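ugh ok so i messed up the first submission bc i forgot one of the chains. this is the corrected input, ALL of the components this time, i swear. 363 residues overall. if the numbers dont match what u have on ur side tell me asap before i send this to the collaborators (the ones from the other lab, u know who)
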Amino acid sequence: MYTLIHTDKNTGARAGKLRTNHGIIDTPAFMPVATKATVKTLTPEELYEMGTQTLISNAFHLYLAPGMEVLQRAGGLHRFMNWNRAIFTDSGGFQMIRKDFPFKVTDEGIVYKNPRDGKKYFYTPRVCLSNQRILGSDVAMILDECPPYGSDYSTVEASVERTIKWAEIAKNEEKNRGQLFFAILQGGTFAELRRKCAEVLVGMEFDGYGIGGLSIGEPKETMKEVLRYNVPFVPEDKPRYLMGVGSPAELLDAIECGIDIFDSAFPTRNARHQSLMTGKGTVDIARRKYAQDFAPVDEICGCYTCKNYTRAYLHHLFKESELLALRLASIHNLHFIQSIVQGAREAIVEDRFAEFKRSVMTL
Ligand SMILES: [Zn+2]
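and heres the new structure output, hopefully the right one now
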């Protein structure tokens, strides 16, 4: 259950606590992405160390591999991956956008084809939630349909109808004791459809709401506009989760609009592509100028990487394609994002979020 602790006096930013079966999540909160039951290259202990209270995995990917039988026998996802804090599981609806798998949508669900073996899976709202029961996730996302950015009104309207229909089915599904169900608000960039979807799903009283269909290629201003419009439909006592965001600037913009929870592969993916975030902008560590730079990646970062290694060393590891490069860079980037979100939380409680945001953005 969610408790609102404080709303910043000058913005819509808010601090709260989400209670789950595996501990409290202090919000705003950022979730590293563990699609296939691992945050790439990192152990749970390394993630705890940087203050991670929750992560997100993907129910559909885990359904394909290793499959629900293995996960059931393992005793659920927490035990399987040795993670003892909260877990969100994404439904798999977003895989339509990612085009990870060929698919076909019907009113009953999504037919996905596994490119590995050609096998077809009929993924319905019920299958989606029964998988998330087996996984034992603390927060299960219900199945939605997310049309690509730029879809026309009638396509988006049809997807909103399906999302609502699937939510009605999901609402009546059995859940594990204490498991939370979040619905996903769709409607593309059409205000009228956003309103309709939000009003109907909010009326069904889910435990929280994801704002879906954003960060899929639309201009930054459009995302802000949709958030400003869409977020007020979600009651104050429900957590709001912006899916698939993101970069420090996007995070801070969204926190300002009243978003509580985020997930994104941005920090870890960038890290593996030698792009390191610092208070003074992004550093491409493979550039020659770092070959003899014996300073840490970021002078004021307190992460394991910055405390123990130099830019020159990371540069060398990337140049030689050493595996340790990926780990050290991932530790730094995730720690950097977690520090921003923690800083935002402290600033909100003290009514100085706008000032905090400015200080981060002008560094
Ligand atoms: Zn660092």
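quick check: The chain has a mean pLDDT of 95. that seems consistent at least. Residues 297-298, 301, 303, 305-306, 332, 335 surround zinc ion (CB under 6 Å).
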